[in-house]
Design brief:
The chain has about 375 residues and is an alpha/beta fold. The protein folds into 3 domains: about 10-115 and about 360-370, 3-Layer(aba) Sandwich (Udp-n-acetylmuramoylalanyl-d-glutamate--2,6- Diaminopimelate Ligase, Chain: A, domain 1), CATH 3.40.1390.30; about 125-140 and about 255-345, 3-Layer(aba) Sandwich (Udp-n-acetylmuramoylalanyl-d-glutamate--2,6- Diaminopimelate Ligase, Chain: A, domain 1); about 145-245, Alpha-Beta Plaits, CATH 3.30.70.120. The chain has 12 helices and 15 strands. A 6-stranded mixed β-sheet has the order 5-10-12-13-14-11. Helix 10 links the parallel strand 12 (about 290-300) and strand 13. Helix 7 packs antiparallel against helix 8 (about 225-235). Residues about 1-15 have low confidence and may be disordered.
């Protein structure tokens, strides 16, 4: 059973928060655009403009969890797994999914899922697993591509500092462990204003030569709208010239799985015992072909698709879940697979979400479900 956080005692500042305000805090952390194409993260039921009377955090929003939310006076459930993955054609109560949705709607409870978008951030599910094991030097195992764009714009020299600062504050210019990164080149821009224009400089009908700075910054997909708004509001021209260029560069802070190291090698069998102690359940593993382990790859939930990445990374053990029988053979003695079960690998996600909200919302007082939603039992 997951550890419980005391039932909330709400003060005015938290009570007056709308559900959408809490969602916005979560989505600044794990943008919805980072979820996989098959996923259904986001608000599944409920009115996001309601005031939040209480927040219940869980791994799976089952009927029992919704009943618990009713009993505790919580009208917002934050779940890791979406209760609905694909479209529902009817709501008759024939399945546990339909019954859960009906119960939530009847009691005016919002269900919000933060799933693969939380899996795909550096401070997400896999990092929580790594921290529990004591790994350091953490890196994303399979960084995502197609999430970066280059913004190129042209600014009068006197305004380059102002525009640059506005773009940085909106989220542009972050590369790895560096921020406020840009490239600037001096040049000359030309334009001619027609009779309907209100030019910043120059005269109507006469071509103007303006000393400008070509300003280039990197922007992730989920920051594009905010950065573009910042550009237009800080730029002195009424017609702002800019280009978006999509990049194939990998975003090293975003992607699937995690890779880390122990400070000193650990005996392999002792490590497997530690894994069982930390995560519980049953550890299924392949042949122990290394006496000690220093480099570990891991992924919360179903991570078998990352096995080749784990081998390429030089990891000696891959910790994840949901491996099928024949997939264990795919290790080919190049790596030790340790399968701990889906629920077990993600069980600490509830505490991760609670901790983040507690750090980013003043007087936040949500609670963790006291119900174990693991559908698998062990003898």
């Amino acid at each position: 059973m997951p550890p419980n956080v005391q039932n909330p005692t709400f003060d005015a500042s938290y009570r007056n928060m709308k559900i959408q305000e809490i969602i916005s805090v979560l989505e600044k952390w794990a943008a919805p655009s980072l979820q996989e194409s098959y996923d259904n993260s986001g608000l599944i039921t409920g009115n996001n403009q309601q005031e939040c009377t209480g927040t219940l955090i869980c791994l799976d929003s089952t009927e029992a969890v919704v009943q618990e939310a009713i009993q505790k006076g919580c009208n917002l459930i934050i779940a890791h797994h979406p209760i609905v993955f694909s479209g529902l054609k009817r709501l008759t109560g024939a399945t546990y999914i339909e019954r859960t949705i009906i119960l939530a709607i009847q009691n005016n409870i919002a269900i919000y899922a933060i799933h693969t978008n939380l899996d795909n951030i550096h401070t997400g599910v896999s990092m929580e697993m790594a921290n529990r094991l004591g790994l350091s030097n953490l890196q994303i195992l399979q960084p995502k591509k197609g999430l970066l764009h280059k913004l190129i714009t042209f600014v009068p020299e006197a305004y380059s500092a102002k525009v640059s600062q506005a773009l940085f504050e909106a989220g542009a210019g972050n590369i790895g462990n560096y921020d406020e990164c840009s490239f600037q080149t001096a040049g000359t821009g030309t334009f001619r204003a027609n009779e309907s224009a209100n030019p910043f400089s120059g005269q109507i009908g006469i071509r103007n030569n303006e000393a400008e700075i070509r300003l280039e910054v990197i922007v992730p997909t989920w920051q594009q709208n905010a950065v573009l708004q910042a550009l237009k509001s800080s730029h002195p021209y009424e017609e702002v010239a800019y280009d978006w260029i999509s990049l194939e560069n990998s975003l090293q802070s975003t992607g699937s799985g995690m890779m880390g190291e122990f400070q000193e090698p650990i005996n392999t069998l002792e490590l497997l015992k530690r894994i069982k102690e930390v995560f519980g359940g049953v550890v299924r593993y392949t042949t122990i072909n290394k006496e000690t382990i220093k480099r570990v790859a891991l992924c919360g939930g179903s991570g078998s698709f990352l096995l080749k990445d784990a081998i390429r990374s030089g990891a000696e053990l891959f910790l994840s879940a949901d491996f099928k029988y024949h997939q264990f053979f795919d290790s080919e003695d190049k790596i030790i697979i340790a399968d701990i079960g889906h629920f077990e690998s993600e069980q600490f996600t509830m505490e991760l979400i609670h901790r983040y909200l507690n750090q980013n919302i003043s007087n936040f007082a949500g609670c963790l479900t006291t119900i174990s939603t693991n559908p698998i039992h062990y003898l």
